[in-house]
Design goal:
This protein is α/β, with parallel strands linked by helices. The protein is 29% helix and 21% strand. It contains 12 helices and 27 strands. It has helices at 26-38, 56-59, 71-74, 90-103, 197-207, 231-239, 242-266, 268-282, 310-316, 401-422, 447-452, 471-480, and strands at 15-16, 19-22, 44-47, 110-111, 115-122, 127-134, 137-143, 145-148, 172-174, 189-193, 212-217, 223-226, 304-307, 320-324, 327-331, 334-337, 342-344, 347-350, 363-366, 369-370, 378-379, 383-384, 390-392, 427-428, 439-440, 458-459, 489-490. The strands form 8 sheets. The protein has a 6-stranded mixed β-sheet, with no helix packed on it. A 5-stranded parallel β-sheet has the order 4-3-2-8-23, with helices on one face. β21 (378-379) and β22 (383-384) form a beta hairpin. α5 packs across α9 and α10 (401-422) packs parallel to α12 (471-480). Mean pLDDT is 93; it is low at 1-10.
Length: 491
């Protein structure tokens, strides 16, 4: 990779706005709509580095890409999900995001192909200076507030470990994050390395066309079959207005998810037995349950969904199989395991995970001091110690991302309105107290979280430094508690 040349000084005058929103996915579009509704009259721009909206749903284009949360909670709170499928495919979600931007008049504020490279806060001016690359030019925006809705995936690279003798393989090796549109896998033997949501999604889709698909996992994951459609939601839509039916379904699913998660936390051993019982019912004869029995408890990693049991259907009809083992090396024709077992392959898919980043690849500074998020502590799960007028979205790990993004945006708007009412221009979480017990931001033991732990913000052992993984707890904190809480610093 070549080092990026220093940007030449821009001759274009900075554009002044009240708010800059970064990211054209669910988080950014949701924040824009909330800003328009809660803070009417505020000038804003939405900057998206890609040439299309969608965020995650524009980035990932591998076969079968879909949500792993129901769209009644992954969708926007203010715009009902229109389709019958609750577990939706990527193109449908991308259309929904674009339609929402048009419907709520966000589109005129969007600047595509605008890649944010720097964001500098100055106490002297009480403003952010955001530097952007666009079409070979360097642009700047001056704003009082900065909302980062860019997610936490590294869009430039996935986790791509190098296996022994990988270069010996004569077929194609693909990472799902960069799936080639022209790939022809008809009548090909395919091996998918991985056992997360991406692998579980790819298996049944590829198995419809490929000669055979083998999912090779180092360790098992919990996989649960779930209906692709929410029958209650579709019944309500036939009886009520779309808005009311969506509102009721959204509340239902929030409560069901919260109930399920609380039961798992309280009795993980019992939950594990229950999940494995469900899995046994889906498995064909001859497949050992050991391939679906993780050595961790259900709360420790996200549970993978198989809409309408499609993953298990592929196992039952013989178009797919599952193997658990460690890779010894690649060969010219496939993979050799440490057990001595060999897997023949024409195409190998490395569904080996994601790389996480905080704040994209933006150089963020406060009074010219660089912000290293791994050294900050999260404030109420949306702001960070020492960073003023700044919100960054981290979604839930065991519930829909958009639920948290929704609350973060509403809190952001409450903060803006409070400053307007009081005449202050800055709100900044202070450095945390010295006796605060510092903990990891996320309690997950998933590989992508563990690899990024040093770079992720931290949390504390007491409010307002605690990060909740509970929508109702966050609603109380972010929507009902006063903005001036005795901790936040105003200037």
């Amino acid at each position: 990779m070549h080092a990026e040349k220093p940007s030449s000084p821009t001759t274009i005058a900075p554009e002044e706005v009240d708010v800059v929103i970064v990211g054209g996915g669910l988080s950014g579009i949701g924040a824009a709509v909330h800003l328009q509704q809660q803070c009417p009259g505020k000038r804003y721009v939405l900057l998206e580095s890609r040439d299309a909206l969608g965020g995650t749903w524009d980035l990932f284009r591998y076969p079968g890409i879909r949500s792993d949360s129901d769209m009644h909670t992954l969708g926007f709170s203010f715009n009902p999900w229109p389709d019958a499928k609750a577990i939706a495919d990527g193109p449908a979600i991308k259309r929904y995001i674009n339609d929402t931007a048009d419907k709520f008049s966000v589109t005129p504020h969007i600047r595509l192909s605008h890649r944010v490279t720097q964001a500098f806060w100055s106490d002297e001016t009480q403003r952010w200076t955001i530097t952007v690359q666009h079409g070979g030019n360097t642009l700047q925006f001056i704003a009082q507030f900065l909302f980062m809705g860019s997610g936490y995936y590294n869009y430039n690279a996935g986790h791509n470990p190098l296996f022994p003798n990988e270069s010996d393989f004569k077929g194609e090796i693909i990472h799902p994050q960069f799936w080639p549109e022209e790939l022809d896998y008809r009548d090909k033997n395919m091996v998918i390395i991985g056992s997360g949501a991406t692998a579980v999604t790819l298996v049944p889709t590829l198995a419809k066309t490929a000669k055979h698909v083998t999912m090779l996992q180092r360790s098992p994951t919990y996989i649960v079959a779930r209906p692709g459609k929410d029958r209650i939601a579709n019944l309500l839509k036939s009886l009520l207005s779309d808005t009311l039916a969506y509102k009721i379904t959204r509340k239902k699913n929030i409560w069901l998810s919260r109930f399920f998660n609380s039961r798992i936390q309280k009795n993980p051993g019992k939950a594990k037995k229950f999940l494995l019982k469900l899995t046994r019912k889906e498995l064909p004869e001859g497949i050992d349950i050991k391939h679906f029995t993780p050595d961790y408890m259900p709360w420790d990693q996200r549970i993978c969904l198989a809409p309408d049991g499609d993953f298990f259907s592929a196992l039952r009809n013989g178009s797919a199989s599952i193997v658990t083992g460690d890779i010894e090396s690649f060969s010219s024709s496939g993979i050799t395991l440490k057990s001595g077992h060999t897997l023949e392959a024409d195409i190998i898919v490395k569904a080996t995970g994601l790389e996480l980043v905080t704040g994209g690849h933006v150089d963020i500074r406060v009074n010219n001091e660089p912000i290293h998020f791994g050294e900050t502590v999260s404030y109420k799960g949306v702001m960070f110690s020492g960073v003023p007028n700044f919100v960054l979205v981290f979604g839930y790990t065991m519930a829909s991302w958009t639920l948290k993004a929704d609350l973060a945006a509403l809190y952001f708007c409450r903060m803006i309105n409070h400053l307007d009412r009081t005449g202050y221009s800055m709100a900044c979480p202070p450095r945390p107290p010295q006796d605060l017990q510092i903990k990891p931001l996320l309690s997950f033991n998933s590989g992508y979280v563990q690899r990024a732990e040093a770079k992720l913000p931290k949390q504390g052992d007491r409010p307002p430094w605690v990060v909740h993984q509970d929508y109702l707890a966050d609603r109380q904190v972010l929507l009902n508690e006063e903005i001036p809480d005795g901790v936040m610093v105003f200037k």
